[in-house]
Amino acid sequence: MSSLRLKFGGLLALVLCWSLLVVYLVTLLEWVPAPFAILQNEPAVTTPTIITTTTTLRPKAVPSPTSRAPPTEAGPRGEMARVLIASDGTCLGGLVSAVNSVLLHTRRSVKFYIITTAEELPHLKVWIEATKLHKMTYELHTLAALTRNITGGLQHIKAHVPDLFPELWGRLVYLDCDVIVQGDIWELFTADIRPGHYGAFSQNCIGPPVGGRAHYGAFVNLRHSALNGSQMNQEACPFATGVFVANLTLWRWHDVPQRVQHWLKLHKREKIVGSHPSADAVEAAMLIVLYGKVTVLDPLWHVQHLGASYSSRYSKQFIEKAKLLHWNGRFKPWSHRAAHAEVWDRYYIPDPTAQFRPARKRG
Questions:
Q1: Average pLDDT, whole number, for the chain?
Q2: Terminus-to-terminus CA distance in the chain, angstroms?
Q3: Rounded distance, CA 33 to CA 39, Å?
């Protein structure tokens, strides 16, 4: 009987031990696998990615023209057209008339960047401040102060704008001093420029031929030793550099001023200009550097060669329709004889110092 009790007690103790073990294991299982249950039944929690954006206005090193091009426009163009015009004493009256014509025909704000010689600066300053032009927005600079590190005079300004005005980015309109603007300059300032192009220029082969047929071979010496193997088409129509809209952002990116200066240095050893009588070194250098990378302007925005002869090559109806007239050539509208000088007279503001007077108006 006692033996039976011992066996029953041992069995009861064994059952109790197993029960305690099972309870322990169940409790452990309910506590440990909790993280696994969360991964299976709830969405995973991810660590957020922080993206830092850095805006760079200009690359540290200027890439070559074969490098990846930047955006063709440097941000919004804003509400103010920017115009650069330069003159020495021979064209000071032309500059004043050109500026006045722009102001009379534009409906938006314009800022002028005006450059003249140190000798003419006091004269031009009085001319502006003593007339209605004093209300315009402008900067007046001397050629000597701007071009200390640049070889050349007024004719070199058009190729060195990014160097002369390092604060300017985006678009800028360049005008020679012997023009009259009859259209809204904002239309020219916002003219279409194709992606990757340096600017919008007019073609030099539009209109009556002056001094022979205009083609690249006439304006650029394509036999120059440095142009051997170039892909420039001798028969291509060259662009004119007296009026244009520049994308200064792209000029900086592709180092246009320095490349133009490189060709001007080569010109001193071997001419880069062609045989055309109106060809000059600065224009030839620009034709080489900007080849194939310019958008064509509406021809009405640059009616050229009005100064090539004292006789008219265009009808009065066409002249009135034109948006920009250019007296490039020998016969200026303030000289004794010039075609369509009566149009220029509409915009001329008499010189308060009487130092500049149109030749045909002198006593």
A1: 81
A2: 158
A3: 10
